[in-house]
Amino acid sequence: MVDNKLINIKSLKSPKGVFLLGHLPQFNTYNKHQVLERWVEESGELFKIHFLGKEFIVSANPDFNNKMLRLRPDTFKRFSKIDEVLKEMGIDGVFNAEGSVWKRQRKPIAEALSVKNVKAFYPIILDKTKAILEKFKNYSEKETIVDVQKEFMAFTIDITTEIAFGYKLDTINNKSNSFQKHLEVIFPMINTRVTAPLPIWRYFKSKKDRILDDSLRSIEKVIYEFIDDAKKRIEKNPSLKTKPSNFLEALLVENEAVNFTNEEIYGNVFTMLLAGEDTTSNSLSWAVFYLAQYPEIVNKVREEANIVYKTEKVSSTYEHVELLKYAYAVAQETMRLKPTTPQLYLEPNEDVVINNVAIPKGTSIILQNKVAQTQEDHFSNANSFIPERWLDHGCPMHKNHSPNVMRAFGGGARYCPGMQLAKTEMIVLISALCKHFDFKLEVKPEDIREQFEFTMYPENLKVTFKSLKTTK
Ligand code: HEM
Predict the structure, then answer these.
(1) How far apart are CA 24 and CA 18, in angstroms?
(2) pLDDT value at position 470?
(3) Which of 15, 201, 268, 459 is 20 to 30 A from 419 via CA?
(4) Residues paired with 466 in a beta bridge
(5) Which helix (H) or strand (E) holds 57?
(6) Pocket lining: 275 vs ligand 1, CB cutoff 6 Å
(7) Which atom of ligand 1 has the smallest separation from the CA of 423?
(8) Distance between CA 437 and CA 148 in Å, rounded?
(9) Model confidence pLDDT, tens digit, residues 12-47
(10) In the chain, what percentage of residues exceed pLDDT 90?
(11) Which range among 260-269, 361-370, 450-459 shows the weakest confidence by mean pLDDT?
(12) Is the pLDDT of residue 164 over 90?
């Protein structure tokens, strides 16, 4: 009886495609996520598409997506193509690991990025925030137009390398910027290769493929410096074996007992760098995109900063960060409207039925999570930037408020382990920037486009910062 009600994925609707090529020509663009959004409008929350005959299911239904995310790691895994592409680049870490390997790798990562550790390493975030404020003050004096995306990437690289690997880089002050340049090459190439219908690069290397190889070699050299450095620290100070002071030391120590392979250690250091850099810097850039358009919101963040940490330059304690509710609301509202990972890619390990839809083992499923975050059913005035909706007392104007559809950090057992670190970085920097500067967009908002390259960022975002002291 129940079987009669089952929906076969073959019967799902499909947006208009092209003969033989299917939906590939439309998807082969800089804004894949927005193409998916348009298709949701055309074909509803659950539909199918195909690229040269290879079928994909797309779901923008938050309940359906949450169920799939929660059924990991046993019933669902990430696209096997992601694993294939990452491994080919030598990246064999927790993001693409599955099953028992994933469980073993996830534990030290989750511990390294726990709230306890974010609190313990707060002085590093503080130092880096002060460094970037100093740099922006300089920009303000020289009236420099700032490419904020690049600046925030330096900020996040420096923090991740110091917190997770105990290695001090000074990318903010351009001391390690070639490393940043090499990292920048990776995500766009993962994006290109994961969605490529054929692995042409295995037979013919384009200029971009050769640049990638060069960047991978340079990154490898730097990562082995992190690893050698940590090994020396452990050798010098054997107490680190029982009490490692960061993620890399924990992996190296576990290596003795649990036997992490060298490839796993290397792959996870690379994964942390990749996962922690663009995602956080993109989100910060989107926050500035909004702040530069709404000076009244900047004023509210500034007022809160003046009340919480008064004459201090930056929120000097983690306890103060917890009081920066309005800066937090700005971060949340930014990630609701501009999630840097608008879609996730999964496939079932076995035949499975979700909400009466029969999904065969190995089906490729794209979870479009952004659509629900900008739907009126879930958030009143859904397309407006209103941080107030995230405050405890809410906003009487906004009767619809469904925080549970927010998937900016994913969901289930594989939700982002760096969430706490990322939120802390965002709150502290948003608050400090608003405390010290007025912002001005140097391009029209409509000329700043959403660019998707595995993560989604504001292309062409150019901003000037006016230091409040220099305005006096
Ligand atoms: C605003 C910033 C960030 C956003 C929006 C973000 C978003 C995400 C998302 C959507 C996932 C996939 C989750 C899933 O499959 O359910 C993820 C996974 C992951 N993130 Fe983040 N992330 C951010 C910052 C960070 C930081 C700072 C780190 C570490 C330094 C980090 C480390 C990771 C790792 C290791 C994974 C893989 C987890 C696994 O597969 O078990 N992320 N992140």
Answers:
(1) 8
(2) 44
(3) 459
(4) 438
(5) strand 54-59
(6) yes
(7) 1
(8) 14
(9) 999 998 888 889 888 888 899 999 999 999 999 999
(10) 76
(11) 260-269
(12) no
Query: Would you say the pTM of this structure is higher than 0.85?
Result: yes
What tokens were used for 4? 């009669």
Q: Is 85 in the pocket of ligand 1 (CB under 6 A)?
A: no
Tokens at 164, concatenated: 């997770």
Label each residue of 129-148 as H, E or C.
HHHHHHHHHHHHHHCCCECH
**How far, in Å, is the centroid of ligand 1 from the Cα of 280?**
9
Judged against a pLDDT cut of 80, whether residue 316 lies above it is answered with yes
Distance 97 CA to ligand 1 centre (A): 14
Angle at 41 between CA 37 and CA 42, to 5 degrees: 115
349/166: higher pLDDT: 349
pLDDT digits (tens, 9 = 90+) for 200-236: 999 999 999 999 999 999 999 999 999 999 999 999 9
Distance CA 426, CA 132 (A): 13
Q: Phi then psi for 158, rounded to 5 degrees? A: -60, -40
pLDDT of residue 18: 86
What is the DSSP track for 301-341? HHHHHHHHSTT-SS--SHHHHTT-HHHHHHHHHHHHHS-S-
User: Is 336:446 a contact under the CB 8 Å cutoff?
Assistant: no
Please name the residues in contact with 292: beta carbons below 8 A apart, sequence gap of 6 or more: 439, 440, 441, 463
> Under CATH, what is the fold of the domain 2-471?
Cytochrome p450 (1.10.630)
């726990």: which residue's tokens?
A: 114
Q: 80: buried, middle or exposed (CB in 10 Å: 19+, 13-18, 0-12)?
A: middle
**Does the CB atom of residue 93 touch ligand 1 within 6 A?**
no
Tell me how crowded residue 317 is: count the other CB atoms within 10 A of its CB.
14
| Least-confidence region, from 99-108, 216-225, 391-400 | 391-400
Q: Using a 6 Å cutoff on CB, does residue 418 contact ligand 1?
A: yes
Query: What is the number of other CB atoms lying within 10 angstroms of the CB of residue 255?
Result: 15
Q: Whose CA is nearest to atom 41 of ligand 1?
A: 414
Q: b/e string for 94-127 if b means 16 or more Cβ within 10 A?
A: bbbbbeeebebbbebbeebbeeebbeebbebbbb
Beta-carbon neighbour count of residue 146 at 10 Å?
19
Q: Degrees (nearest 5) of the Cα angle 344, 345, 346?
A: 125
Query: In the predicted model, what is the mean pLDDT of the chain?
Result: 92
Q: Any idea what DSSP says for residue 144? A: P
Cα–Cα dist 59/337, whole Å = 18
Tokens of 459: 């292309």
How far apart CA 73 and CA 379 sit, in angstroms, is 30
Instruction: Name the one residue in this structure whose structure tokens are 């998937």.
Output: 407
3-state secondary structure of 392: coil
pLDDT at site 471: 41
pLDDT attached to residue 260: 84
